[in-house]
Design goal:
A hairpin with a 2-residue loop joins strand 6 and strand 7. The chain has nine helices and seven strands.
Length: 233
């Protein structure tokens, strides 16, 4: 990867990312763009610290945060490698990727620890020591959910409440599948195979029709959220 490469194209929240070299090591700089929660920057930074600790406590590989610029809401972290969206630009590729099992293991660990995640494949990177989960904004803990819901209209609240439910541990497998469908409608042909692998690990239930319905629901909820311009941060 070239020095200074911007990975902002992978951020739905329009955060900016920059990968850079320093003394032979690679780092990634993430500047979080707060919009709906602009007046709550200090609180969000405290929630990020709590959330990062919870991810590590769950036994999930997570890059070290090297430094924080609190005034700019900017984080410098260890760079662990390319994300899985870069490695698998077509959703069909993920089923053949050798790292899928590691991603599913992360989802199961999160469920066992009642930990919220955003399971889009762009949030997993292949590092030297294995697959890391790298996303910490928004910090998916109850304090964040409550804060964001307190600052939205009734119409926004209806959408966000469902969206937030899919970030929580019981629905992570359905969210993972729904994101792949959102990327490419042709992924429907692969859904039975993905269902088998998720169900085998008890990440989703054993009813395929229910699995498909829940995956389709998160796909449509996120499209509605995008269409309405509802911001998470």
């Amino acid at each position: 990867m070239e020095k200074g490469q911007d990975l902002g194209m992978y951020s739905v929240q329009k955060s900016s990312f920059r990968v850079f070299d320093q003394e032979g090591e690679k780092f990634i700089e993430k500047k979080i763009r707060l919009q709906a929660l602009k007046e709550h920057q200090h609180s969000i930074q405290g929630m990020i610290k709590t959330y990062a600790a919870k991810i590590r406590e769950a036994g999930i590989l997570f890059p070290r945060i090297v430094s924080v610029d609190p005034d700019r809401c900017q984080y410098t972290c260890e760079y662990q490698g390319e994300n899985l969206l870069q490695a698998c630009p077509r959703p069909h590729d993920i089923l053949e990727n050798l790292n899928l099992d590691a991603i599913l293991d992360i989802l199961r660990l999160a469920q066992l620890r009642c930990l919220g995640l955003d399971p889009h494949i762009k949030n997993f990177v292949v590092g030297r020591s294995g697959v890391h989960y790298v996303d910490f904004s928004p910090p998916l803990i109850e304090d964040y959910f409550a804060l964001r819901l307190s600052l939205c209209s009734p119409a926004e609240r209806e959408i966000l409440q469902v969206n937030f439910d899919y970030f929580k541990s019981p629905l992570l497998g359905y969210h993972f599948a729904g994101d792949l469908l959102k990327m490419d409608e042709q992924f429907y042909s692969e859904m039975p195979l993905l269902f088998e692998r998720l169900a085998r690990r008890k990440i989703v239930g054993e009813n395929y029709a229910d699995f498909l319905a829940k995956a389709e629901k998160i796909k449509e909820i996120e499209r509605t959220r995008d269409r309405m311009g509802i911001l998470l941060l």
